[in-house]
TrEMBL record:
The chain crosses the membrane at residues 6-25, 32-52, 58-81, 88-108, 120-143, 310-329. The keyword Calcium does not apply. The lineage of its organism: Bacteria, Bacillati, Bacillota, Bacilli, Lactobacillales. It comes from Ruoffia tabacinasalis. Gene3D superfamilies: HUPs (3.40.50.620). It comes from the Bacteria. This is YdcF family protein. One of its GO terms (cellular component) is plasma membrane.
Length: 338
């Protein structure tokens, strides 16, 4: 292909990806594909600069993207392991075991290179590395989508605010839950006709339903009682939104979800799954970054559980396609450039 054709093709791909990103963001941003397409746009930008021979600029952009692509999962993993020290100890032990095995192989003069070239070993290493790369891509796509939904959307006027519960301290709301309610009150003060739906059932270790405790707190902060609806039957985010929507005066009522920032995107995805149009307002957690990173990891795994059938299907397809490619390479049907 001539250089001119490469330039034209690269520019066309960039424009198509950019338009696709804009369309997704404009019409239905509640999807992980928004973040994925944004990453593809960034990668295509680097490719385009390389084709146009802007090598230095492409190198700088590539380094920045590479750092962001890798640093985010690393930071999240550190935060997660900091809250799960037993798992951290297991990983450290596994690392030392791996080092000891490597030393034993070296001291016994075993040809490690020949071992690594065994078909089953090469399959396993490649499968693991490619899987890690895909996992990093999915994590970054989820995070970008969450950020775009959180910070960049205009908030139209709504009829209801659904405030999601988050546990109690005896009969009182926790500081985390209080920040959610404070955010709802802030929005309410800008539009005093709003109805606040306080959503949360009663856990086994709670003296009263979360919805009731949330309502008591809001009333103590000056919200009129007749502007509050209590939903006290839900036990998870799915039920929070489903049961709260049953209190709407009409089917076409509009609403906003209020929760902590790390939790908000999954709540929006649940609303989408229920066929409900929603916007959202994020509340600060008031916690350190380690807590937020750990919470985000939990939210991400909860998202994967939401999409379990697709995760299983993708894992099967990935295994089959990778195995076929690996077999083709071994048979020299599709030699890799070295």
């Amino acid at each position: 292909m001539h250089p001119e054709d490469q330039m034209a093709m690269s520019l066309l791909v960039f424009i198509l990806l950019f338009v696709l990103c804009f369309v997704i963001y404009k019409y239905e941003p509640r999807t992980i594909f928004l973040g994925l397409v944004m990453i593809l746009v960034a990668i295509q930008s680097v490719v385009m600069f390389l084709i146009f021979n802007f090598n230095n600029l492409a190198l700088i952009m590539g380094i920045i993207l590479g750092i962001l692509f890798l640093i985010i999962p690393v930071v999240l993993t550190i935060g997660f392991l900091s809250k799960h020290r037993k798992l951290f100890k297991c990983l450290i032990i596994s690392l030392f075991v791996g080092i000891i095995i490597s030393l034993l192989l070296y001291l016994n003069e075993i040809n490690v290179i020949e071992i690594l070239q065994l078909p089953l070993i090469t399959w396993g290493i490649g499968y693991f590395v490619c899987g890690i790369c895909l996992g990093i891509l999915v994590v970054n796509s989820y995070l970008l989508s969450a950020l775009m939904n959180l910070f960049s959307k205009e908030k139209p006027s709504v009829d209801y605010l659904i405030v999601l519960g988050a546990g109690l301290n005896k009969e009182k709301v926790t500081p985390l839950l209080a920040k959610r309610i404070d955010k709802a009150i802030q929005v309410y003060k800008e539009a005093p006709d709003l109805i606040l739906i306080m959503s949360g059932g009663q856990g086994d270790d709670e003296m009263i339903p979360e919805g009731l405790a949330m309502a008591n707190y809001a009333i103590s902060q000056g919200v009129p009682k007749n502007h509050i609806i209590i939903e006290d039957q839900s036990v998870n985010t799915y039920e929070n939104i489903l049961f709260s929507s049953q209190h709407f005066a009409s089917e076409d009522a509009s609403f906003a979800i209020i929760s902590t920032m790390y939790h908000l995107f999954r709540a929006e995805l649940i609303a989408k799954k229920l066929g409900l149009k929603s916007v959202s307002y994020g509340a600060e957690s008031g916690k350190k970054w380690v807590f937020n990173a750990n919470a985000f990891i939990r939210e991400f795994f909860a998202y994967l559980y939401m999409q379990l059938k697709w995760v299983v299907l993708f894992s099967i397809l990935y295994t089959l396609l990778y195995s076929l490619l690996h077999y083709a390479v071994l048979m020299n049907a599709f030699p890799l450039p070295l």
